[in-house]
Amino acid sequence: MDPFLALLHSFSSSLSDGELASLKFLCRGRIGKRKLESVQSGAELFTILLEQQLIARDKVSFLEALLESVKREDLVSQLKQFVEEGEVKAPDDQPDVHEKRLQKAAIEVICENVGRDWKMLIRKLGVSEVKMDRIVAANPLNLHEQLTQSLREWQKWKGKDAKVTDLIKALRGCNMNLVADKVEEKLLPLSIGTR
């Protein structure tokens, strides 16, 4: 199932009749009157917008403006989240088995040894504040889980470009040298075992 179409479908089902009428009115300059009169649901309106290429997975500014105009900030934030998170990575964009093993070991060490300053590390890795806030909200009062989920988010985001060397570099960039040393110590036997 196309994630963008699923998102549009969820938007459609949450629109009130008044909001749909407002959206139709706002589209008058872009869609013919006769076509608009036949629209009975958000899904039908979104279908027309897709057909006329006014919206697409990578072209959401018109849709965002429409949703803002009808004061649906909740839907605007869902749309922004969708754009920010992008598509689910393809299987060929995943790290190889050896790199995954190294990452798993490195993440265990990091989660055992990085404390309250974990956000500094995650920022250094390039994970957005929005994603971190969402992870914190989902796991309140559980630092270990917040860090674990944030590192998984980084792995998912980077795909096959997620490297243990990046984790070590980020640790050193945050002056977490002791943790970086522990990661390297743990990985040394794993690295030698694959040669």
Give your account of this protein's structure.
This protein has helices at 3-14, 17-26, 33-38, 42-51, 61-69, 73-85, 97-113, 118-125, 129-138, 143-158, 164-173, 177-193. The chain is mainly alpha-helical and 195 residues long. The protein has two domains: 3-85, Death Domain, Fas (Orthogonal Bundle), CATH 1.10.533.10; 91-193, Death Domain, Fas, CATH 1.10.533. Helix 7 runs antiparallel to helix 12, helix 8 packs parallel to helix 10 (143-158) and helix 9 packs across helix 10 (143-158). The radius of gyration is 22 Å and the shape is elongated. The two termini are 41 Å apart.
Instruction: Please tell me the total number of domains.
Output: 2
N-C termini distance: 41 Å
Mean pLDDT: 87
CATH class bucket of the largest domain? Mainly Alpha
- CATH-derived architecture of the largest domain: Orthogonal Bundle
The CATH superfamily of the largest domain turns out to be Death Domain, Fas
Based on CA inertia axes, which overall geometry fits?
Answer: elongated
Radius of gyration: 22 Å
Portion in beta strands: under 5%
SSE diagram, text form:
Layout: H1 3-14, H2 17-26, H3 33-38, H4 42-51, H5 61-69, H6 73-85, H7 97-113, H8 118-125, H9 129-138, H10 143-158, H11 164-173, H12 177-193
Helix pairs in contact: 7-10, 7-12, 8-10, 8-11, 9-10, 11-12
Write a concise keyword list for the protein shown above:
195 residues; mainly alpha; Death Domain, Fas; 2 domains; elongated
